[in-house]
Amino acid sequence: MTRCALLAGSWLFAFAAALPAQEAAPRYFEQEVAASNPLRTEQARELDGYIVSLKQDHSRFEQLLKPDYSSPGAYEESVQAYREAFCRSIGYPPPGEAKLDQATFEPIGEDGIGLYYRARIPVLPGVHAEGLYIVPRSLKAGEKAPLVVSMHGGGGSPEVALFHGGANYHDMVRGGVKRGYIIFAPQHLFSAEGFPQDVRNRTDERLRLVGTSLTAVEIAKITRSLDRLLERPEVDRDRVGMVGLSYGGYYTLVTAAVDPRIRVAVCSCYYGVQEGRYARDELSIPSDFRFPDRFTLFRDGNLAALVCPRGLQIQAGSKDGVDHREAGVLQAPESAAYYEKLGLTGRFQHLVFDGGHEFHDASAWEFVAKHFDGR
Q: Cα–Cα distance between 265 and 262 in angstroms, integer?
């Protein structure tokens, strides 16, 4: 062995000797992952029970809504906290203001009963309310007439509700004009050329991510339109009503709940629909009805407390789908009770008429006239 080899070997030996002795790998506690599956099952069971308990707990509602039935004025003041809580839940009012003086009313036609305008009213930054504005031909110069907001339903439009017989809306638009009322029939978003088929749901979900909701925006399209319309010289600002079918019935209920300027409301073929669906399948509720506490604090039967003591008629067709009728029948006594305790039973009506998913003209316009005339 050469001297170099001997030196290299000794160096390697010395290096190896300097290394610490290799320790045995530590032994950790181990268990099969599946052994904790029962804990996850219990967690799901606990949360399910918690949700059920919240659904059945009425104490938060009773703390929030404490009506004072000593007088209509005292009652209206006592429900204000409940109204504010509802507005917070839906994100109303939506952020931003608009210049109402930039509203336009373009004449588009006339006939034997009215003058027709295309209204475009700024309501939010870059956002307008669009709709038809109809003034009765019978209205003389210098006179004023009541204003009725006529709200179309899902997939519809003011034009569907007005032209060519009005489909299942019947006389929900022209019927008011025939009776001497000014009509504002706004457009809400259900479809739009060049946008996805689910543009409504997508818009609602995007609005929720920035602090409001489509419900809040579409209520604001009505309430902020009223700010402008009530300035018009032909409008009697003390006599404002709203009528709506289906989705329009929903907006009639919630807009009247938010805005006390609406003196009388007719909610047709909507009341109780979501409660019926929720009882059968909680997650069957369309997204724009899924606002916080929808089924613990703000059920349709309870939202009527925010319309009271003003007039409220609920319509349902005897031949309509079960969701559009039966849950409403169960809730109606709750709504009626707010009026009964004030001695104002005539201001609430729950009507199941002989018909389907349609607006019941005769009873609606009779109810509106009754409250406009102070009967």
A: 7
Whichever domain contains 113, its CATH number is 3.40.50.1820
Residue whose structure tokens are 């010289």: 233
CA distances from 140 to 113, 121, 164 (A): 13, 25, 28
For residue 273, count CB atoms less than 10 angstroms from its CB and return exposed for 0-12, middle for 13-18, buried for 19 or more: buried
The number of domains in the chain is 1
In a domain, residue 29? The reply is no
Q: Which domain holds residue 95?
A: 81-372
Tell me the pLDDT tens digit for each residue of 358-372.
999 999 999 999 999
Distance CA 209, CA 116 (A): 38
The neighbour count for residue 33, using CB atoms within 10 Å, is 7
Residue 75 covered by a domain? no
- 53 lies in a domain? no
Ramachandran angles phi, psi of 219, nearest 5° = -65, -45
Q: pTM higher than 0.85 for the full model?
A: yes
For 131, the 3-state DSSP assignment is: strand
What's the pLDDT tens digit per position in 276-302? 999 999 999 998 899 999 999 999 999
Tokens 């925006």: give the residue: 217
